[in-house]
Specification:
With about 200 residues, this protein is an alpha/beta fold. The protein contains 8 helices and 9 strands. Belongs to the peptidase S51 family. Pfam families: Peptidase_S51.
């Protein structure tokens, strides 16, 4: 059964996920992948997410795909029961996963029941394709990207930071330009939980 959580802003919505965590995660350490943030100047959301996991009592193991050899990355993905992928540049993130041939391994592990938590870029990655995010992310940071094919683990396309600064305009442009896709806008106060075929959207008040 798929066990997936997708959010725009993990630190601000993690409290909504605690029942899900207690049900599926228990005391599993978190394989924390901050790779998408490597080329970003602003990284506070990564530090906030790391702090939030620690506050909830979880051990964290950092895995930067860009600076890890393939064998190590594969071994860690095979062994973990929980992977968290942070926000940043989705094209750069996908490029680094492709460089280490990790996409198929990630998909298989998710199908096997590994919990997948995706924030912003990590949430966009869950879709069949990440092309639609080019209005929000600069693909020039991924000059070696082989394709725009995402994980294809959900049948919708997350639009993160909907109506939230500084993405008010770009998120609206995505909705208008890619209206033919099954888009799911998420503000920084919202998150989506997928358990098997059940999809639930939760909002922080």
């Amino acid at each position: 059964m798929k066990k997936i959580c997708l959010a725009s802003y993990f630190a601000g919505t993690a409290h909504l996920l605690e029942p899900f965590f207690k049900k599926h995660i228990k005391n599993s350490p978190v394989l924390f992948i901050p790779t998408a943030s490597n080329i970003e100047d602003y990284k506070n959301y990564v530090y906030e997410a790391e702090q939030k996991w620690q506050e909830m009592g979880y051990q964290i193991e950092i895995l930067d795909i860009a600076n890890t050899d393939k064998e190590t990355a594969v071994n860690k993905l095979e062994q973990t029961d929980l992977v968290y992928i942070s926000g940043g540049n989705t094209f750069y993130l996908l490029q680094e996963l492709q460089n280490k041939n990790l996409i198929d391994i990630l998909k298989r592990r998710i199908e096997e029941g590994m919990v997948y938590i995706g924030e912003s870029a990590g949430a966009i990655l869950a879709a069949k394709s990440i092309t639609y995010s080019e209005l929000m992310d600069n693909r020039e940071h991924a000059s070696h990207l082989q394709s725009d094919n995402g994980l294809d683990i959900v049948d919708f396309y997350i639009v993160p930071h909907y109506q939230n600064y500084p993405f008010v305009q770009t998120s609206e442009q995505i909705i208008q330009h890619y209206a033919h896709l099954n888009l799911l806008p998420l503000s920084n106060q919202e998150t989506v939980i997928i358990e098997g075929n059940e999809v639930r959207k939760l909002t922080s008040i």
